[in-house]
Amino acid sequence: MTKKDPYAALRIKEFNIFLLVRFALIFGWSMQFIVIEWQVYALTNNPLSLGIIGLCEFLPAFFLAPFAGHIVDKKEKRNLFIRCIALFSLISFGLFWLTTETIASSWETNTILYGIYGLVFFGGVLRAFFGPTIFSLIGLLVPKKLYANAATWSSSTWKGASVFGALCGGFLIAGIGVNYTLGIIFLLVMLSLVLVFKIEKKPILNIGNNESVKESLKAGLNFVFNDKVILGALTLDMIAVLFGGAVAIFAVFATDVLDAGPKGFGILNAALSSGSILTMLATTYIPITKNTGKKLLISIFGFGVFMILFGASKLLWLSIFALFFSGVFDGISMVVRQTILQLKTPDNMRGRVGAVNSMFVGSSNELGALESGLAARIFGAPLAVVLGGTVTLIIVGIIGVKNKPLRDLDLTKDIEAHEKD
Prior knowledge:
Blueprint: H1 13-44, H2 47-74, H3 77-98, H4 101-106, H5 109-141, H6 147-175, H7 177-196, H8 213-226, H9 228-244, H10 250-257, H11 261-283, H12 292-312, H13 316-344, H14 350-379, H15 381-402, H16 404-407, H17 412-420
Helix pairs in contact: 1-2, 1-5, 1-6, 1-7, 2-5, 2-8, 2-14, 3-5, 3-7, 5-14, 6-7, 6-11, 6-13, 9-12, 9-13, 9-14, 9-15, 10-11, 11-13, 12-13, 12-15, 14-15
């Protein structure tokens, strides 16, 4: 077998442009998430309000995802991506406008708060389309033999943008304030909109043009729910994010538990993501293909263990340490899951499978934010995170015992088969 080229996907011009666009979008989206969480908590001083943000984004993202997947499979992917980015720019500008001094001094706090919730809800609608569109577009930019390498670089870019977005978000809030930070985010979204035009239009690969919406949705859901490997991988990641994640209440930890302020808030967010990106970059040199299923189970178990340590910590340095290693294990699981989906999904079903992935994983971020906010309100933030991490460990153990196809999964032969195509 020929020696692996860790930069194989990066030698394709359009894939590089795609990564630049994705970096700009996620960098901006990551900062925007932090700014919104910080601003809403500053307005309300109530951790439950952070959970409501998650609910506002979860509802449309989850319930529209199946229809979004159907539309993505039927439409040209580049232009659909352009429309999504253009609409996202309206959200960014709306948040920038809502936080200007003029609005802050003339509008009531609840009115501003409801305006933020409304824009977040609109963002949830777009999230339903963003996920399957990006997942489908990757498969059209690189040949199949490079899917695993492309998935690694795409995931690394996503995490890298999250790292710097989270870190810069916290420092910019402290340095230039919420409003100017949101202005920078709007400019980043506009930059990504300009760059995406450098990608050529792509063919539509869904040959089932006579399918009704109902038949199309049913085919996509049946494919995912009948494949134990894909279903198990999605379920594991969903559970980890839903119960084990604590990103939505980092503002509570930074303010009330660790007394770290906005800079510490940014560092906490960046610590989690930095562990992930370092791990994912390492996998471009050391592919995680042998004993894939076992590595997925171990990585999510490790994520849960270190999230428990974070919840129990009262020291900033220990919290950063715990989040960094949570990110290390999260990075492994993300690369494995994306590689499984890219290799196991037929080309004509990428939009629908990407949509189900968004329902399981993307939407669990928002629902997890609601769970975290509600649990923090009832139990307090530290105990809420410890309990969530414990639930993650229990469910990983159950799936590891019950789902033999996932436990025994090895992607080595799949990757070798694509390399021979």
